[in-house]
Design goal:
heterodimer; A: alpha/beta; 8-stranded mixed beta sheet; 4-stranded mixed beta sheet; 6 helices; B: 8-stranded parallel β-barrel; 11 helices
Chain lengths: 213, 245
């Protein structure tokens, strides 16, 4: 039976992600794991994450998973979620600056305390709640999901990749930030598909069928 | 995680009920607009307004006060529950600047209502489920239905609601601590966020909810604890903020 590994590196409870995957990935085994060989042998890898960038990186290093995750991201269908997307970049300004995995060049920035919308109203940080996700490309993982569909976000930092060609979607919150990226076999999103109702489940379902091309 | 102070309105005043009983109320302020201002000032990012008379009458009874609060604090999202049982009422509230309406009894007794209004007012509908032992209660908690709370929440998720406000009614207003297990169980069974309500007593309850936030707990509604002073909302908000950035 094909297997989807959900990488567990101590950053948050992953049952919500795993349960959503179990719900949509028919005929596949979903395992929550911190074992390198399980991740290496899985057919697909989901890399979630919550909390602070420094803690995430520290846990990945302590558990000797940083290289395992990077290797998976070069070989097989790979889905990063929230912090699991942010740490794919080279550097985060969180916690006075943290070096990250560096799969993609670019920084992770704080939204700032003085964020305002077009009407000049102050916006709250963290950006929390439902917001529209606007596709920049026709990626296969958007199959069955309308352009502009709303997904559920919880985050205070956003990514700023150097290579604009990896941007798969953007979202408006004070300004237009990058809410999804992708290249080759990797797709990564800032929002939480596991908490985004039918469109979120559709994305996870698309991922569960994706061959990475 | 959002900390959401509740302003329960009865006869134009800010009150708290014990166990949902209209006759068992405590008045905390004669000036709900000023009370809202106090919570906005300490940095709350959402307000939870409940029209108690409306919930019992089945139509808005404190709309003037709610409109006044929405007008006074346009930057703070407001969710309103109590007595919202028609599309006209929803239109009136949204026009007044309310961000979300919370449908309770009507969602349970007339499930088609939710699919209709989710189509008509996308992004503005929250369902409030009051539950005891896993079953949904209706009509100001006077009746416990046969409906399983998880089954109903899953149905509303498909209809397209924004979130579920989950109130454990054996705990609400009793300050006995949050029913974390039941709240997490619901959050895990659905793919939309849950706002926890009922039973929050002190900062430990906020910390306990924050610890399970990534199960999909979007926020926590708190009432009696902030009025009686067992929870310092400013301190709690500062603690939550310190965890989030």
């Amino acid at each position: 039976m094909p297997e989807i590994a959900v990488v567990d590196y101590g950053m948050g409870n992953l049952r919500s992600v795993a349960k959503a995957l179990e719900y949509v990935a028919e005929g596949q085994n979903v395992v929550v794991t911190s074992e390198a060989d399980v991740i290496e042998n899985a057919d697909r890898v989901v890399f979630p994450g919550q909390g602070a960038a420094r803690d995430c990186m520290q846990e990945l290093v302590d558990r000797k998973l940083a290289d395992v995750v990077l290797k998976a991201a070069q070989e097989k269908p790979f889905l990063g979620i929230c912090m699991g997307m942010q740490v794919l970049l080279s550097h985060s300004e969180e916690n006075n600056g943290v070096d990250c995995l560096g799969l993609y060049g670019g920084d992770v920035h704080f939204f700032g305390k003085e964020l305002k919308n077009e009407q000049g109203e102050k916006l709250k940080i963290p950006h929390m709640g439902w917001n529209g996700v606007h596709h920049k490309k026709n990626h296969i993982l958007w199959h069955g999901i309308d352009d502009g569909s709303r997904f559920y976000f919880v985050h205070s930092y956003y990514i700023d990749p150097e290579d604009a060609s990896i941007v798969e979607a953007t979202t408006q919150y004070g300004f237009e930030f990058v809410s999804a990226i992708g290249r080759d076999n990797v797709f990564a999103v800032q929002f939480h598909p596991e908490k985004s109702a039918q469109d979120g489940l559709q994305l996870l379902k698309n991922f569960s069928k994706w061959n990475g091309q | 995680m959002l900390l959401i102070p509740a302003i329960d309105l009865k006869d134009g005043k800010c009150v708290r009920l014990r166990q949902g009983k209209m006759e068992d109320d405590t008045v905390f302020s004669d000036d709900p607009v000023a009370m809202a201002g106090r919570w906005v000032e300490i940095g709350c990012q959402r307000l939870h307004l409940v029209d108690l008379n409306g919930a019992f009458e089945g139509k808005p009874m404190n709309a003037d006060v709610i409109h006044a609060i929405a007008e006074a604090y346009p930057d703070v999202p407001i969710q309103v529950g109590g007595g919202i049982r028609s599309e006209d009422t929803i239109t009136t509230y949204l026009d007044a600047g309310v961000s979300y309406v919370i449908i309770g009894t009507k969602a349970v007794t007339d499930p088609h209502f939710i699919s209709d209004i989710c189509a008509g007012f996308p992004g503005h509908i929250i369902v409030g489920l009051d539950a005891k032992d896993g079953k949904v209660a209706v009509d100001g908690w006077s009746k416990v239905s046969k409906h399983d709370v998880i089954d109903m929440a899953q149905r509303f998720e498909e209809d397209g609601v924004e979130a579920i406000v989950y109130t454990d009614i054996s705990r609400d207003g009793m300050m006995q601590g949050v029913n974390i297990d039941a709240t997490v169980k619901l959050a895990q069974a659905i793919h939309i966020p849950v706002i926890a309500s009922g039973g929050i007593t002190n900062l430990d309850d906020i910390k306990a909810l924050k610890a399970v936030e990534d199960e999909g707990i979007m926020g926590a509604i708190t009432g009696r604890a902030i009025y009686e002073g067992t929870l310092d909302l400013a301190e709690a908000q500062a603690w939550v903020n310190s965890q989030e950035s």
